[in-house]
Amino acid sequence: MDCSAGTYVRSVCRDLAERLGSLAVMTSIKRTRCGDFYSSQSVRPEDLTADDIIPLSVALAALPKYEAADTFYKKATNGVSFDAGDAPTGKFVLYCRGELLGIASRGNGGIGITTWLKED
């Protein structure tokens, strides 16, 4: 099944069985892809080498990139939401002063970082 985040696969199986007038038991589930990453590309922790590490900019390439104005740097790095009307909707990678800060989204309170990735 190729589905978006938030799809409840177990519920899809239950609903399918119900529409077929039957019952169903799901015995296993395996995620084979997440975004641009496939399980076939994975490396076991004990086999991991420095060559297997990819830059964050590559790992996050599927998300839109937004460069906030320099004036928002202090707010962003202190966890304070700020209003920037030209930011993308949904999740995006937030940069400010050329520095990767994290994954952010725009809500009613403005832009807020949901996953911090800033290196100190």
In short:
The protein is α+β, with helices and mostly antiparallel strands and 120 residues long. The chain has three helices and six strands.
Tell me about this structure.
The chain has 120 residues and is α+β, with helices and mostly antiparallel strands. It has a domain of 65 residues: Archaeosine Trna-guanine Transglycosylase, Chain: A, domain 4 (Roll), CATH 2.30.130. It has three helices and six strands; from the N terminus they run αββαβαβββ. The strands form two sheets. A four-stranded mixed sheet has the order 3-4-5-6. Strands 1-2 form a two-stranded antiparallel ribbon. A hairpin with a 2-residue loop joins strand 5 and strand 6. The mean pLDDT is 89.
Write the layout of secondary structure elements.
Elements: H1 9-19, E1 33-34, E2 37-38, H2 56-59, E3 65-68, H3 73-77, E4 91-96, E5 99-107, E6 110-116
Parallel strand pairs: 3-4
Antiparallel strand pairs: 1-2, 4-5, 5-6
Largest sheet: 4 strands, mixed
Work out the oligomeric state of the chains in this entry.
single chain
What would CATH call the class of the domain at 52-116?
Mainly Beta
Shape: flat
**Series of H and E elements:** HEEHEHEEE
Return residue spans where pLDDT drops below 50 for at least 5 consecutive residues.
Answer: none
Spatial order of strands in the largest sheet = 3-4-5-6
**What is the CATH topology classification name of the domain at 52-116?**
Archaeosine Trna-guanine Transglycosylase, Chain: A, domain 4
Helix content: 10-25%
Query: Tally the helices: what do you get?
Result: 3
Report the portion of residues in β strands.
25-35%
By secondary-structure content and strand pairing, the structural class works out as: alpha+beta
Radius of gyration: 20 Å
The total of beta strands comes to 6
Q: Write down the overall mean pLDDT.
A: 89
